[in-house]
# Entry
Amino acid sequence: MGCLNLWSVLSGGKFVGSFKASRFQEKIIKLAKTDKTTLLYAADQIGYIYVYDMEKFAPEQKSLRAENFWRAHTCRITGLQIVDNDQVVLTSSTDCTVRLWSVHGEFIGTFGQSESWSVHIPSSWKHPAVPYEVLIDPLSLPDHEILNLKTHPSDAISPGETEAHRGELKVSCITLQMII
# Structure
C-alpha cells in the first residue's frame, strides 16, 4: 500500500493532504484540468490507470477512491501523457505497446497495429473491446470466491460422492435405438 502526498503550488507549497493508493511502486502521476474538475491520473506497476477527482478530495480524508480505473497494459506503465485538446490519455509500457485511451478509459487503439483507427472518429475506436493480451492476462480476471475453489475432476463426474468413493471408476451404459 502506497501513499500520495499533495501540496498546493498555488499557495506556496502548502501541504494539502495525502491519501492511500494501492500498488504504486512506480509513481506516474499527471493532473488534467477540465471545464468542471481537476483529475489526477496515476499508473501502477501491473498496468492499471486510476483517475481521481481532486474536487472531492479533502485534507481530513485518509483515502480517496478512484472515480474510474482500467487495466491498460499487462506490465508496468512507463509513460502517461494527457492530451487536453483531444481529451485522450497516451500510455506506454514495458509490454512494448503504446496505446491511446479516452480520458474516461475507453480504448481507442494500439499504435502499430494493422487495424486503422482515428482519435477524431469515435466509431473507429476499439471500445468496448479491450486489448486482447489484457483480456486474457490472469491478473485481469475478476476476483470472485467461486474462481478460487479447488476442485477435483471427480467433482464434476460424481458431485455427490465422498472422498472414499473417489478413485473408483463407475460406468453407466446408455442404449440408443435408431429407427430407420
Remarks:
- The chain has a mean pLDDT of 75.
- Helices lie at 132-136, 153-157.
